[in-house]
Amino acid sequence: MAEAPRTQALLRLMAWMSPAFPIGGFAWSGGLERAVHDRLVQDAGELQSWLEALLRHGSFWNDAVLFAVAWRRHQDPEGLAELSELGLALAGSAERNFETLSLGKAFATAAAAWPTPVLERLPADVPFPVSVGAVAAAHGVPLEDALAAYLHGALSQAVSAGIRLGACGQMHGVAILAALEAEIGDVARSACGATLDDLGTAGIQADIASLRHETQHSRLFRS
Description:
Blueprint: H1 6-16, H2 32-37, H3 44-57, H4 59-72, H5 77-89, H6 94-110, H7 118-121, H8 128-138, H9 143-164, H10 170-179, H11 181-192, H12 204-213
Helix pairs in contact: 3-4, 3-10, 4-5, 4-8, 4-9, 4-11, 6-8, 8-9, 9-10, 9-11
């Protein structure tokens, strides 16, 4: 598999991870809305700690592992199908399942603007990290770069949700992203060599928040 020219790869990553990319990422909070509602996340410091825990020990880590394995399996339809089933099964709640499935399908549809046979190898029901990982590999985008962009995009979306929920302001949100740069790099490098044996989380509070969000009466987000 030949790598895409560096500028081309960068432009594609910027497009795929852009808030303007039509996947509807703005509609989801991954349970953060409930965490704010339950006063588990009340300010910028708590939001940063929450996101760092997800990155190191929660759903973002599992997503990074699934992404890396999908990147390596992008030429294997059966392997991608099995990985997709596992990724959907790992979702900790019905809302999280619907979130990753909706984003994954929307990404594959939008990524058809860059035609590649991998889109035919992806199953109809594909979680978000599997979809992005496989497409990135098919276009020759280096794994570590793709992972770092994916994780930064996920954290940026979470920070945006935190701002809209009143947990912090825009300046604090930018500071959170700056503070997590090293963490993103470390996790991306670790996930590059990860296998399915490295899957696993300890984000119990986040999973509970996601479950409780399903019965929340007034809400801004779908998860």
